[in-house]
Structure formats: structure tokens, C-alpha cells
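Human:
I keep going back and forth on a fold encoding question. Comparing notes only helps if you start from a blank page. Show me how you would write down a chain together with its backbone fold. Write it directly below this note and I will take it from there.

Assistant:
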Amino acid sequence: MSALYGTYARSELAFERGEGMRLYGQDGTPYLDFHAGIAVNALGHGDPHLVAALKAAAEKVWHTSNVFTIPEQERLGQRLVEATFADSVFFTNSGAEAIECAIKTARHHFFAKGEPDRYEIICFTGSFHGRTLGTIAAGGNPGYLEGFGPPLAGFQHLAPGNLHAVEQAIGPQTGAILIEPVQGEGGVTAMSPEFMRGLRTLCDQHGVLLILDEVQCGYGRTGKFFAHEWAGIVPDIMAVAKGIGGGFPLGACLAKGAVASSMVPGTHGSTYGGNPLACAVGNAVLDRVLAPGFLEHVDRMGQRLAWHLQQLAQRFPQYVMEMRGKGLLAGIKITPPVRDFVVRLRHDHQLLTQGAGDNVLRLLPPLIVTEADIEEAIGKIAEAFAALDAEAVSVPAGA
């Protein structure tokens, strides 16, 4: 019996090594990875540039704490500022911590302005912002809130897409709006550019901050550096993680200078956040993601994945109900139970995928994916659907 908490419905499958788009089981079986550690392994497995950066950093300084200046952290923060809307960055270990920092930054901003009552944040159903007490309150999913006492106050939840409802919900205590431009865990739902632009306009009109959760949809996954760029807007605060470290635990909260200015010594902190080892890897990831042609490749592959999924839907209309997502954060709502189908793909077809809310099969390949990889993955899904057809035929009538 495992000594670990029973919080995960784990597969018995364990991997020995990874290379590029593939993971290898302990028996040597290769698996095509369209899971990427839930959108974490942006550069696949064993990327030589990342491995070299990690080895070089490991031979120097692993950790010093944020009591001291960390050159790699300073460099990564400056590069992120130069590549985004932000003026300031706070480094964390995870996406949930980045969201916590975003919430605290927004609330403290208004506190410092003499408006401490403006602590409420408008959020949206179907969201997932993390597993801490604060982030499950922001997400509002009853299944994640149950059993942990009264939810943290200060969050109200609306269905996404209705700008009029958002405007009606803004009141004297509203300080921010928090949204994922593309929902991941909740069902791979992409917000329309019009809705995102409308939220930005409402925030400007009412003096409200726009917080974006780009933990899963950011860092190149949709074909632009960040998903909000498709709408031509910028946030006031943004949470980032997953792909930022390419598999090494790293997250960040990015903010405009005027918003982050009240976050002075004592208002927030992290023991490990942005330590030398993490930021050395983060800089290596950024080298690749911002290299000429990289994001253009991701955009092309996202379009090719969407095309192949359309062909799959036409071939198996009895199983594919709807296509969702953006770029290489793609999903198809299917009729078979998605958890069972994920297991079938893994066990029978050596394809690693992930489920999402609303019975959606989520496809999250590393950003280095090629069209040949996409065709192979779609072929495996088609084989799984065909097997379901064969099984249905083999069941005697009335059984």
C-alpha cells in the first residue's frame, strides 16, 4: 500500500525516460505524449538546451532565498517585462501560487489607494485557478469546495460570455475581474475575442483591474506568446506557470507597475520562488519560446490539429459532439465517458491524453509537435473509436 496521500486516481503506469514527443515506460514501451504533464512540458522531454542549462546551474548555486539578489531571477524577470505588458514580476513555484499573488496584488492595490472595501473579484463558472483555499474559492467549483469549510469570501461567479451580466455585477466593492482566456480543466472553452475586449472596456470604464489566468493557455500554447494577444488587449495582472519552466516547478505573477507598486517588503514572499535553479531553466525555456519562428510553428500546428480533428469529427459523428479550444490547447466533447476513453487510449493505443470537464478529451502536446505526430495521434484516436464500433456490433441484440 502506498505511503502517499490518496488524492490522485493514479494509473499504475510509470515512466523511465522521455525523449522529444515520447515517454518510455519501465518496460520500454513508447507512448506518444499529447498530455505534456498537463501543458507543462512545453519543449517535450530531454530538450538538450534545457538539460544543459539545468546541469550548468546545478554545479553552481541551487538556492539562496530571496533575502539576496538572484541574477538569473533578475534576468528572467527583465526578459518577461520586455516581452509583455508588465512592469513587475513576482516568481512562484506553481500556478496556484501565481493566482494567490495576483489576488493579493489586486486587493492590496486598492487598500493602498484608500479603498479597502474594493476586494471583491468577479470570476466565471467553468474556471479552474488552483487547489489552495483561495484559488478554489475563486474557481467556485462545488466539487473542489466541498469539505473544506466556508469558502473564502470576496468572489462572485457568472457564466462567461455575457457582458451585460458582468456590467450589472460590478459594484462599489468590485476590485477585479479574473478569467482564463481559454479554460483548461473546466472544459477547454475559448473565450471570444469580443468578450475579452468587452471585459477590458468594462474594467477601464469602472476602474476595475483585469486579471488573466494564463497558467495553462499561456507561454505559446495558442500560437501567440499569451492567449490574450488574440483579442488585442492587455491585462493589469497575469498569472503564469506550467510551460514557463518546461517541467521545472516555476510560476510568475506579472503586473503593471502602478498596480504592483504597493507590494512592498512584508506584503508577500516565497522561500523557493524564483530560486537560481528554477530561473536558469526558465531562461532556457524562454530562449526557445521566443526564438524566431517558434511561435509561428505552434500556430501552424494548432491549425493543423484543428483540421485533423474536424476530419475525425466527420468520420465519427456518433462519438465527437463538439470541438473546442485554441491552438495546441484543443478539446473534443465526446459521447463515451472521457475517463474511460483516456484509459483506453493509454492502455490500448499508447497515446497519453487528458480529460476535462463536460466530458471533453483534452489534447495538450508539447509545442515542438509536428504534423506527423498529430496525424499519428489522430490515427490512434480513430482506432479507439473504431474499436468502440466493433465492440458495439459484437454485443448481441438485447444484451
User: Anything to note?
Assistant: Residues 126 and 186 are 5 Å apart (CA to CA). Residues 371-394 form the longest helix (24 residues). The chain is about 40% helix and 15% strand.
